């Protein structure tokens, strides 16, 4: 049986800006690797489905660690536009990732 719990991040260790992480007890190290690869594939697929400008803004913020004015300059747009792109990208990605594991419409399985 696996038990998972959310814990606060260790300050200064990760660049995830204070987001918690998930610790699973009772799982082998290879289980962590498989789980991490699956999660990465799911997130990557979600990112690839975002509109180009939303994906670019989100990646510049999360991966390149740029602030909004720097992203606006890099994208040749206003800071307000970048804020909207980030809000929409996060909302869309969150909605898509929440649906992972839910059956697709028309994919109804009958349980007996």
Helical run tally = 4
| Separation of the first and last Cα atoms | 26 Å
Q: Compute the number of structural domains.
A: 2
- The shape is elongated
Radius of gyration: 18 Å
- Fourth-level CATH superfamily of the largest domain: Winged helix-like DNA-binding domain superfamily/Winged helix DNA-binding domain
CATH class category of the largest domain: Mainly Alpha
* Helix/strand order, N-terminal first: EEHHHH
The CATH architecture of the largest domain is Orthogonal Bundle
- Could you name the CATH topology of the largest domain? Arc Repressor Mutant, subunit A
Structural class: mainly alpha
Largest sheet: 2 strands, antiparallel
Please tally the β strands and state the result.
2
- Major beta sheet, strand line-up: 1-2
Mean pLDDT: 75
Residue runs with pLDDT of under 50 for 5 or more positions: 1-23
Tell me what the structure shows.
The protein is mainly alpha-helical and 112 residues long. It folds into two domains: 41 residues, no CATH class; 51 residues, Winged helix-like DNA-binding domain superfamily/Winged helix DNA-binding domain (Arc Repressor Mutant, subunit A). It is built from four helices and two strands; from the N terminus they run ββαααα. It has a two-stranded antiparallel ribbon with strand order 1-2. The N terminus is likely disordered.
